[in-house]
Amino acid sequence: MASRAVRRALLGWGLALCCLWCAGAGWSGGHEWKKLILTQHWPPTVCKEADSCRDSLDYWTIHGLWPDKGEECNRSWHFNVDEIKDLVPDMKIYWPDVIHPSSNRTQFWRHEWEKHGTCAAQLDALNSERKYFGKSLALYKQVDLNSMLLKFGIRPSVNYYHIADFKDALTRVYGVVPKIQCLPPQQDEQVQTIGQIELCFTKEDLHLRNCTEPGEQLSAKQEAWLAEGAAAQGMAVCEDGPVFYPPPAKTQR
Fold this sequence. Notes:
The protein is an alpha+beta fold and 253 residues long. The chain has helices spanning 2-25, 43-50, 88-94, 107-120, 129-143, 145-151, 163-174, 220-231, and strands at residues 35-41, 61-67, 161-162, 179-183, 192-202, 208-209, 236-237, 242-244. A hairpin with an 8-residue loop joins strand 4 (179-183) and strand 5.
C-alpha cells in the first residue's frame, strides 16, 4: 500500500513538472536558434508603405528582438501588459506602434512577445516578459543608432545617400556587419528608400556579431522566415546604389 502511494506521489510530481515545463519553457528542437536580431525601423518609411500612421517620428524605433529561427514557441504564454508596467513609458517612446492607432498601443507588443519573445525566452536573461522587453530596450539604447548616424553626418534629407554610406558607418562603429533593408522604388520613383536596420547579437552573451558570417548558410525556410518581417512592410535587402533617407512628414493633427 505504501509503495503504491509513493508511486502515485511520484507520478503526480512528474505530471506537475511536465505541466510547468509545457507552460513556461516547452520548446521543441525545431525552435532552436543561434542569434538574436535587434530590428529597428525608420517610421517615415514604414508610414509611406502602410499609408496610415498616427505620428510622424524623426528617430529610429524598435521593430523587435527576434531569434533567428522559430516563432510562437509557446502559444499558451500570453502577453500581459501588467508585467511591464514600469517599462511602458519607455516602450511608448522607443517601441511605438506607428501604424495601428489604439487607445493603449499594446497590440504591437503583444504580437512581438507571442511571436518572438516566447522563443527568445529560452535564455535565462530573456525568460519573462519583463526581461525580454527590458533587455530589448537596453540593447536599443546601447547601440544608440540615432546618435551614431548623426555622428557620421547621416540625417534625413531630400538628397540621396549611397547605401555604402550606411554600411560603412555601421561597420566602423559596431565592428560587425549589419543587414539593411529598403523599400524598393515605387511608381515614379528612381531609388530605394531605407527602412530597416538589423544588428545581431550572440546567443551566449548578447554581444554584437555579424548578421551573416562568411560561409554561413541558411536554409530556404530560415531565409524566408527572416525576410518575413521586412516583406510584411514591402521591404527587401537593400541593393548597392543610391538610397533615400526620407525626412518625416509633418504630423497630421
